[in-house]
Amino acid sequence: MPVHSADPLTDSVGPFNRLSASQANTWDDCPRLWWYQNKMRLKFPQTPPLFMGRAVEECVCRVLMESPGLVFSTAPTDVLSNGADKLLPLFDDELPSDFISWCESRVDAHWPAIRDEMHAAWSKDARKAGNWHDYSMEAYRDMCVTALRMHMGEVEECMNTISDQELNDWRNGNRQEIPAPDGREETGPHPIARKGDCHLVEAWEIARPWFVDPNAPPFSLNVIHPEHWFQGEYDLVYRHGGKIRIMDLKASRGGGDRSGNYVEQLRIYAMLWSITHSGEIPDALEVWYLGVNVRKSIEVPSAEEITSMENKLSDLWHEIKDSEITVDDCPTIPRPLRGYSEGGVKVEDPEDIRCSTCDWAGLCPNGSGDDDLPEGGQHQPPGDIKVYDLTAFGDLKPRINIFCEVFSATKIPDKAPNLTIEQDGGFAFVRIVAEESEGVLTYPENVEKGDTVRLIGVVPSTNWKGELQLKVDPHARIEKASEAEDGDIGLFDFQARWNVAGRVAYTTYKSGVGKNGKPWTRKGIVLLDNSGRIAVEGWDNSWPSVFNTLKQGDEIAVLNVSLDAWAVDVKANLEKGSTLHVLSRADEN
After folding, report:
1. What is the DSSP letter of 565?
2. CATH code assigned to 398-480
3. Which of 251, 37, 46 is nearest to 130 (CA)?
4. What is the Cα–Cα distance from 220 to 275, expressed in whole angstroms?
5. CATH 2.40.50.140 domain residues, the chain
6. What is the pLDDT of residues 411-434, one digit of tens each?
7. 3-42 b/e (C-beta count within 10 Å ≥ 16 → b)
8. Which is nearest to 222 in space by CA: 48, 11, 477, 474?
9. Core-most of 80, 109, 161, 349, by most CB within 10 Å?
10. Domain with residues 378-394+495-588, CATH architecture
11. Cβ-based neighbour number of residue 483 at 10 Å
């Protein structure tokens, strides 16, 4: 089974606290790098190649879902929208004479929409970097074709080496417990099964690897360690011929230090397969470098190496995920850069150091930063007689608990209800923006007017009319209750404005067009202090001009902001009357 789900009855780790191969590699690259990106949740610059890599993988998977025996090369992209069972097998004279040409035609059918969706996603990302038009979209389209050429090598090998037993089992309708995504739901003999020797169109079906269905919800097809502390997601798993081979697609040329991480990632995936398949070890591991048409073989770890790897990763999880960890536990120990040329070929290691290209050099003591971060205190702006108390980020309270009565409950089919609550003559709207959290509803299904409820961990704010609203996100919930509990507060007893200070990690920028057709722009700053991180956001015209001069490592105070939150992220909103003050400049230290 390429998928191994969590057991909800025994999972005490939860989906947000598992270790991954990328986190393990980041820790090995530098513990302080892991701290910034995973504990402080700093987001490295989102360049076009990151999004184009996802586009290539999705395009390849959408073509792999289809069948040359069911789908014309000129078919629309939604040909499988009603399922493959609704399609009639093609006659022999309708089959493609060249499967590679068929693959290329299907890439050209899917690629434009996927490419444009990724461009839109990149354009909306507040942390985007680089210039989309500096990259050749044709080159990435060609990578899709290269991946499918590699797949056709598997198909042809399957056709030439398949056993009578495997062929007959497939023709009779026998399928893997978790089959490769192919749009089929019906059981029984496969509709394009033939007689005699294996036909190429049959080999396509039999050799089709398991991959992440692009229509599946994110993270729903992960492989989770039986003890729940680790998770991963394979790109391609070939299972024909009775062998297990795991392939990793890389929309790159394979040069540079990162190729070393790809090797470690695949070996970790071999461990994960073995642990979730009663000790079975994959027969082969490969990285497919689509930019240079190279299939690089990775040495499969032995049973002893798998045990050692599992123990090492388990220890790492206990060290950095299962306990409270501080910045002092994440020393600045970057490992040397590794040398690789195109195709992931090992070459002499470079003399450069990892810190010279690190995104967080302006924060780190190994760069131009230090660990002497702000932590609350006070600030008196020049010329102002008032002294402002600054709250450390860890002491901010964006969430509240309220015991109240449901004043109105409007039910909406297949959606969360619209609720208004009342307490001591005051009213507030309840905005349920997350209907579920870990598979459990965040509100009672049968909530009605007159019910008394507790709103737990809701985020108070005001809408554009100035009316109070209480947001229910994945970390909040509504429960029916007969009385208040300790910690519940009055509807208007929460602190509405706060003063904060921190060190600039980076600035953000988002823009778009509203429903009224008018363009909008929001800017933001991600700040660190000694207790955590916070993002400050506001409309473009709310920011003073000094915003445009801020750099990583500068320290600022932002006064009179309101708070918002989503899951574990806390955000401060620049409001009317908010002010920004530069406390120090990085280049002055």
Report:
1. E
2. 2.40.50.140
3. 46
4. 19
5. 378-394+495-588, 398-480
6. 888 889 999 999 988 999 999 999
7. bbebeeeebebeeeebbbbebbbbbbbbbbbbbbbbbbeb
8. 11
9. 80
10. Beta Barrel (2.40)
11. 8
